[in-house]
Each structure stands twice: as C-alpha cells, then as structure tokens.
Design goal:
- This protein is α/β, with parallel strands linked by helices and about 300 residues long.
- It is built from nine helices and 13 strands.
- The N and C termini lie close together (about 10 Å).
Length: about 300
C-alpha cells in the first residue's frame, strides 16, 4: 500500500493527513467538527475535504479513528473486550457508509467487573503507534486529554486501561462553577502555582475540598486570579497521578503520549510521583498506529 489518508474527526475538529510510505505528504490542519455537521452530511463533508487527494484513477483509501466511530458519530464501530492487539483491531475495521473505500477503526473496552466497564475510542491507535515508534512490547501509558487514559500493554496486547475525566472536570470547574468568577483563564501556565496544586492534591482532605481551596486561596491567601487555572490543574492532574500510582505501585517508567501543552504539566506531576516519563508525540503515534492498522486491513482483504 503506497498512499493512505488518515483522518482524526472528533466532536470539535476535523484533521486529515495524506501519508505515503510512512511520511506525511500533505495535511488539512483543521475543519468542522462532528458537533457542527449534520449526521447525514458526514459523507459529503468528508468527501469534499479530501477531494484534492482522491481525484485520480486510484484514490487512496481513508482510515478514520476517534469519535467518528461512536454511536453518535458517522458509523458505530465496535469496541472489542481486552486483551486487544493490532490484528484484532484490523479485523474489526468497518466501512463508512456513503464514501468509497473509507473505513473506521474500532475502539476497545475493558470489563473490570459485572458492574464496571471502561471504554476507549481513539487512544488505542496512539498506543500501538507509540509501541512501533519506540520498538516496545510492554509499556505503561499515560495519555492526557479531556478524558485521560492510563493503559497497560504486555506482549503488544492492550490488557488494561483506566479513564479519568481530568480535562473535562478542569473545563467545567473554570467555566461553570464559582471559580469562573475570579479565575483568569487566559493566563499562561505557571509552574509554581501548578506545583502548589500538586502539593494540595497530596493532602488527605479529599478532591472535592481541594478544588474549593482554589476559591479560598484567591479570597484570603496567596492566589491571584491568573494563578488559579494552573493551581487547579495541579490539583486535578495530581489527583489523577496519585490514583494511578496506587494502581501501579511498582511501575518505574511511563510513556507520556499527548500534546505539547499537556506533556509539560504531566511530566512535572509524573516526576513528583516517582515516575520516569518518556514523551511521545500524539500526532506521530496516531499516524503510525492508524497506518499499521490500515496495512493489516489491506493485507487481509488482498
């Protein structure tokens, strides 16, 4: 397979890359997310965005991952139960209705007990892509984001993961609670305030009280409004990392796969918890992972 189009179409953005032999030849950096596109228009919109790459006699195939495969997305893609490997994902790729040779990569889920289930959609391609990039068979991953994931891989099989709503709670707290009245959301990241948040998260007071501390310290303490976002970030990321340290008490290294903006704060929090973090670009991991799944899927169909 020479060329393939990789698409990351989420709730708020559309991004696509034309990849040949593992190299990005062209890209569409941003477009309209699914939230702002009528569901019946998904095939037309995607086809129009990719038209400049698919005008030849043999247009390259399209492989999509992420929320595009959710029940509210373009086409529901399965979420097989762990353990899952690359071949398992390639075997469950589904056709995207309305666009020729377009495919949606499945997610996965973990059944922890009869009552506890966790789901993943999109991060699995980053995990397997990072393994390829770093030539690893076993790893513990931290994938920060709106819904942060910690995932365990053994023998190139994803065997366990846990989701934390860290990013979403951060946005909700700064946008829809009493903190919104005083916090300066436009302020740059402040490492000192972030570290104070980490220290607060390490206390025994509980997360709900710790978050209110941001309000109290603004009123009567040392917290200026421009420091509140970094302080709150430290509390939430600190709580996440503290919980994961409890789940993985013997772990020494974590593969940190995320955006540039998140890798910095998470790197500080991981180091404070005794983890050695190895950073991996989320974009590079996604492209490598979807590319590997696409190659296996094409080989199965040949």
């Amino acid at each position: 397979m020479d060329e393939v189009i990789v698409v990351d179409w989420g709730t708020t953005s559309f991004r696509a890359w034309l990849v040949a032999s593992g190299e990005v030849k062209d890209e569409i950096p941003s477009g309209t997310g699914m939230r702002d596109t009528a569901r019946e228009d998904f095939p037309r919109y995607c086809g129009a965005q990719l038209a400049r790459w698919r005008g030849g006699a043999e247009p390259p195939p399209v492989y999509m991952a992420g929320m595009v495969g959710a029940p509210q997305g373009w086409q529901a893609a399965p979420q097989p139960v762990l353990p899952v490997g690359l071949d398992d994902l390639a075997a469950r790729v589904v056709a995207a209705e309305g666009l020729p040779d377009a495919w949606i990569v499945p997610g996965c889920r973990v059944q922890k007990s009869d009552a506890e289930i966790d789901v993943m959609r999109g991060e699995e391609v980053q995990i397997f892509g990072a393994l390829d990039l770093l030539k690893r068979d076993d790893a513990l991953f931290c994938l920060p984001g709106t819904h942060s994931k910690w995932a365990q891989v053994r023998g190139r099989k994803l065997v366990h993961f846990t989701t934390s709503m860290t990013g979403e709670v951060y946005e909700a707290m700064l946008g829809h609670t009493i903190l919104a009245k005083t916090a300066d959301r436009a302020a740059p990241f402040d490492e000192a305030a972030f570290r104070k948040g980490l220290a607060q998260a390490a206390s025994a007071d509980g997360l709900l009280h710790q978050m209110f501390a941001a309000r109290c310290r603004t009123l009567y303490g040392d917290m200026k409004p421009e420091l509140t976002p970094s302080f709150l970030s430290g509390i939430l990321i600190g709580a996440e990392v503290k919980a994961m340290r409890g789940l993985y008490p013997e772990a020494k290294e974590v593969l940190l796969c995320g955006s540039d903006a998140l890798r910095g704060p998470y790197g500080i929090a991981l180091a404070a918890a005794g983890f050695a973090a190895t950073a991996v670009s989320a974009k590079a991991a996604s492209l490598a992972g979807i590319g590997a799944i696409a190659a296996r899927h094409r080989a199965r169909a040949a």
